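Bug #77: duplicate submission created two jobs. Keeping one. Sequence:
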Amino acid sequence: MLRTIRLTAAIVCFTLVTLLFLDFTGTLHTWFGWLAKIQFLPAVLALNIGVVLFLIILTILFGRIYCSVICPLGVFQDAISWVSGKRKKNRFRYSPAMKWLRYGVLAVFIIAMIVGLNALAILIAPYSAYGRMVSALFAPVWQWGNNLLAYFAERAGSYAFYEVDVWIKSFSTLVIAVVTLIVLIILAWRNGRTYCNTICPVGTVLGFISRYSIFKPVIDTSKCNGCGLCARNCKASCIDAKAHKIDYSRCVVCMNCLGKCKKGAIKYTRRIPEIEAEPEMITTSKAKSVTTEQVDNARRSFLSASAIFATTAALKAQEKKVDGGLAGIEDKKIPVRATPIVPPGAWSARHFARHCTACQLCVSACPNNVLRPSTEPARLMQPEVSYERGYCRPECTRCSDVCPAGAIRPIAIEEKSSTRIGHAVWIRKNCIPLTDGVECGNCARHCPSGAILMVPSDSDDVNSVRIPVVNAERCIGCGACENLCPARPFSAIYVEGHTMHSVM
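Kept job's structure:
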């Protein structure tokens, strides 16, 4: 029963977290966005003390239940291991803990985060690694499937679905996601939870805490016949059947051992120190421990809160078109920006870089296609703003709503519309009124803050073609001018980022 409850809760959490990265309508984020915010590392970086304490208390009570239920990367490895188990059963063996590797990787991870080498640290962060795999590899397939449904629905006279652009946001992120996926599949296929118990920094931290958990699997030596079936089905390789010991720092509370033991020699019950020190006192200690029924009820009460199902419906998105609905002849190219643009709510480039885990959730959720992973080594895979496919609409706060790590703080629409994340810069040699001698004014017409004014190109001739003049003090850096500029391949006006955001 306990294993069934654990599996049900894990499947629900895994499915919903995955859909958070796949949902481009924003519907699921409204209801289940909190699942991203209760991930361990994002909660730590966001200084969400309540969530961190909750996860620590949860671990103290039940062991590494976070790793087996809440963490999507852990559940993903379980799925791979389950498929592998169909080919070969009873394939696991007990192996001693590689403490030097676990704590060495954790130390490097902490040092990298402290000194600001986030690009190195986030490579092994579990939630971020899973987010990158889903957004880079699975999201395009999901979107192609949506477009196929939209194609057939449109011909059937239904508009329940709408097409979305499918494009590779970052080749480097795609490569890293592929490598991560291959490594995880190999490790999980061969040895189950090897990644969690050797590399994962979150697993190491929670593993240290779980050594002192109240409820945990306990071996009853009076019933154990030494068959070793529990150890051969332990994907964490933490059960020493010969010595009747369990390494609780590596146990992820998957409950596989409980279901495989034919003698009922393993119980998930309250930890009694005397049991671990004196195996022969098991019979006496049973009177002091809670009953199996009580434990089951406690587990059901906690895990039932995770079993939340909701019905979602696709939202009709507003189609964005270039001025006049005309398609560009040539795709825009990314301008060289001296200062990268970070989203409103980030406060500053420094704050954003130190808190972002590069999970790609904001990239997946952005309805305007302005966020993409950076290719710069110092900010590798961390999102940055670019306006080749859209612009940052003042009324949109989706990225700040979904960010679980506090890199993009929640921001109101009123505040966003007055936050200066950059300023527009005019490039005279690219401007169509000067190159082609025709009137344009796209940038001025679409500027939401009224920061662009069209003036005669010749101050002595009021009838000369008009060119834009930018009031940098009024510009908020939304990129509407850059995106809607008809000049190709480089816009005649582009946005330069600000290292520190300010409010007008």
